[in-house]
Specification:
Number of helices: 3
Helix content: 40-55%
CATH class of the domain at 3-78: Mainly Alpha
Distance between the termini: 87 Å
CATH architecture of the domain at 3-78: Orthogonal Bundle
Structural class: mainly alpha
Strand content: under 5%
Radius of gyration: 40 Å
Length: 128
């Protein structure tokens, strides 16, 4: 039984252009999406497509396992002393820094800063 290109593409859930590319790789000449292809060619395309889908699924599973392993390794690296009790040490005395008081004579004089306003155009607007 023969099948049209667009029907096979719909069955495989791919675009007709992608299917036409696969067909040209196999040496099948198609003029449009309405071209008819033999059942043998359609079966070859189905097998090829199913192999690709299975390979993608396997790669996705491997990627997920790798991510999970990295996540577990990261978790273990963050808390290496989880089961070990911490030894409590005596708290250290706080360090007090001496303050130096300056006399008003030693302080340099600073002028207060004044913000300058931009100049305004005070001329009245004239009508033209």
């Amino acid at each position: 039984m023969q099948i049209r290109v667009h029907e096979l593409a719909k069955e495989l859930k791919i675009s007709t252009m992608a299917l036409k590319k696969h067909l040209t790789d196999l040496g099948v000449i198609t003029k449009s999406h309405m071209s008819i292809i033999d059942e043998e060619v359609a079966n070859k395309i189905r097998e090829k497509y199913n192999e690709q889908v299975d390979a993608e699924k396997r790669a996705e599973k491997d990627r997920k396992k790798l991510i999970e392993l990295r996540h577990q390794a990261k978790k273990n690296a963050e808390s290496p002393f989880k089961g070990i009790e911490e030894v409590t040490a005596q708290p250290a005395e706080p360090v007090v820094e001496p303050t130096i008081e300056e006399s008003p004579e030693e302080r340099p004089e600073t002028k207060p800063t004044v913000k300058k306003r931009p100049k305004r155009n005070l001329k009245p607007k004239t009508k033209a």
